Amino acid sequence: MKIGVKKKAELKKNGVKGALFACSTGLLLVLSACAKEGAAPAQTGASVAISQAGVSAAASPLNLPAERGKRGETAPVIYQTDGVKLRTKDYAEEKFDTNAQLKEMMDYWAKGNMKAVEELAHLSRFEAMSASMKTESGDRSSYYGEVNEKKEPEGKGIMVYSENRYYYGSFQNGRREGKGTWIQFYPSYSRDTATYHSYSGEFKNDLPNGQGQEHYEYNPERMDKNLLYLQNVIGTFQDGFYQGEMYVITLDRNGKTTEWKGSCKSGTWQKEGEADAKRRYPVLHGRLDEDRHIWMTEKENRDFGVREIAWK
Questions:
Q1: How much of the chain is in helix, strand and coil states, percent to nearest 5?
Q2: Is residue 277 one of the residues assigned to a domain?
Q3: Residue 167 located in a structural domain
Q4: Which residues contact 184 (CB under 8 A, 6 or more apart)?
Q5: By the 8 A CB rule, do 285 and 31 touch?
Q6: How many structural domains compose the chain?
Q7: 69 DSSP assignment
Q8: What is the distance between the alpha carbons of residues 78 and 26, in angstroms, rounded to a whole number?
Q9: Where are the alpha helices (DSSP H) in the chain?
């Protein structure tokens, strides 16, 4: 995705008014260090790179920001990936007990012991259980918890899906409804920068709907020292996508955070001004530096949200 960061003077030069927005992304954002708060003012053409979860920054063929690169080079791009994939064949001989394991995990989750939940999710028997949810006829899921008269999930419970994904929270008529938490744990053999991706908040019609928070954690050893990574996205979600005013926190390899704000409509960032010469629009600004923006084209500006859930 070709993204840029520009200062207020450049916006005025292009006839752009200093409007305020609030936005964020359910994709894993990877932003160039030139956008960091406290960094030197961005030069014309300074860029911000955005990459979705499951893509290692080191493996991404990023181009240099315009002010450091050769003339004619483009800004970094966005990678449309959908999280990590389990190596299903690796678990062919692994034995597991789905009911017992889900009960075991639910007991820890109910007590708020997320360290224990994560440790369980990385055990071979739990990864094998999740891998078994992927079949030739399609993905399925298994549930443990309260049920209604029709034996459908109703009340509090836990569900396991393929690709090491879990949900713990409220159900109604067999669907996720009410408050809950969805997590995808990245297996130890994954070479991705992220270690897990989660959404906590309100669900309706089996999708994130209402107030919620998306969160990523990373392996610092795989983080590029010149990039920022999306850590938190907080606000309203609609059918899995960002909706309305959003608040974003990004993280760099040294643990430094940067705050951003913007506004989305059905997963599309609202424009904050006119397009530049490359047809990129300002769509996100810094909370502490409202003159700094993230830019993207109309083609790039779509489907921002917890896509692993929204597209299922």
A1: 15, 35, 45
A2: yes
A3: no
A4: 83, 84, 163, 164, 165, 196, 197, 198, 308
A5: no
A6: 1
A7: S
A8: 13
A9: 8-13, 98-110, 114-121, 124-131, 307-310
Domain residue limits at 251: 1-84+227-233+245-300
Place of tokens 């030739």: 136
Report which of 214, 245, 254, 249 is spatially closest to residue 230, judged by C-alpha positions.
Answer: 249
In a domain, 3, yes or no: yes
Residue 140 pLDDT exceeds 60: yes
Task: Read off the pLDDT band of 290 (50, 70, 90).
Answer: confident
Q: Give the residue carrying structure tokens 């836990």.
A: 158
Does the structure show a pLDDT above 90 at 133? Answer: yes
- Over residues 173-221, the pLDDT tens digits come to 999 999 999 999 999 999 888 888 999 999 999 999 999 999 989 889 9
> What 3-state class would DSSP assign to 258?
strand
Q: What is the pTM assigned to this prediction?
A: 0.75
In a domain, 201, yes or no: no
Count of CB atoms situated within 10 Å of the CB of 112:
9
